[in-house]
Structure formats: structure tokens, C-alpha cells
Give the backbone structure.
Amino acid sequence: MTPIHKELALGRWHAMSLVEQLANIGSEVSRVTHWHTVSDQKGKGKAVERALELLDLTIADEKNRSRLSELLRLREVFCDTFLGENIYGVSPEYLDEYFLQFGVAANRERFKE
Amino acid sequence: MDIKIIKEKIELDEVKRMAEEGFGDMVKAVVDLEKKVIALGGELHADANGVLLKEGSEQKDVWGINIYPGKPREEWIEFNSLINIRPAVGNRSRGIENEEIRAKIIEIVDKLVQ
């Protein structure tokens, strides 16, 4: 199956730090949250696909081996929150805040004002 | 995904084509408020951001959005990008909290995308 993020899947993604990876996944998760909130199933579906592709690339990244359990739990919770029955009781807002911290960290050095 | 710098006009059909070839329903974009240009495309906003900086843009003037060309004009811009997180200038989210900046972005996009 052709990846959505073709260039990232070819190796660029694995060159990023875990913080940068999670920061970028967080952007997609926030889009999932938006479309989920306004009940736009089409927009939500596409955003879910993008988020999961990036999450799976992160999980497959060898350098993240020591973080695998958290990454796999994150994937499960993400799917449960947006596609499942929310048995873990994690809100979209909580996930957004979780990822936002990585966004702040990733940008702190990148965009010094 | 190719990144195009839009200084004049771009047809809506071209934006739709870029969306279809990329993420399906949307195109990432980075807007320079000073130069009034858009870097359109790319897999990450950081990519388009980098293209604008190489063209002479200053980081403080550029903001990330997503354009959904299949949606009505009043709904087609999503203010959501990792590059927007700038606590130092009071923007601590992926959105754009300053209403004036959002309005300028809408104006630039509406003018350039026909």
C-alpha cells in the first residue's frame, strides 16, 4: 500500500528525534479531535489514517525500541478514544495536551524568537 | 510532495489536484504575512516553512495552516500547525490565537487562491 507520507516513510521520519516525531503526530491528532468534535466522519477518517501512519512509523523506528511499550499503549489508547468504545476513558483533549508538550519542546530550539 | 510558492494567483482546481495527490482532502500551507505569499504543499509544515525562509521570509512572519479545497470558503482554512507553537510570543497552541493574524491569513489566501 502506498504511504500517505511518501517522503517521510522513505527515511526522513526515522531521522527525526522522538520528540519531533511525537510533536508532528500531535498535529494530526489535533485534526482528528477537531473533525471528531464536529462529527465530520470523512475528515476524521483521513486524519486518523495520517496519524496512525506516523505513529506506526515511530513504532517501527529502531531507535525508539526502549520506548516501545509507551508507544504501543499510546496507539491503543488513540484507537480506543477515536475508533473504539473509549473503555480507557481518555478524552481527546487529554491526548491533545499530551502531544502539545512535545510540540512546545520541539519548537523551543527550532524557532528561537 | 512538491512545494509551490504562490506569489500571484493559483487556480482552485490546482489546489484540489495537489490535495488529491497528497493527503486526499487537504494541502498544508505556510503563509508569510509580510510578503503576502504562500508556500503550498509538503508533507510537513516545517518543509514549506523552510522554503519560505530560504526565499527571504522571517520566521516571525510565517504561520501554518491547512487548506481543504473541497470545503466552502468560509470553512476551508484550518489554523492548525506545529510551527505555530511559539510560547515566547504568546501563542502556546497549534492554532493561531491572534484574531488579526487569522484575518490577514484569510485575506491572503482568498486573494491568491482563485
In short: The mean pLDDT of chain B is 94. Strands of chain B lie at 3-6, 27-32, 37-41, 62-67, 77-78. Chain B has three helices and five strands.
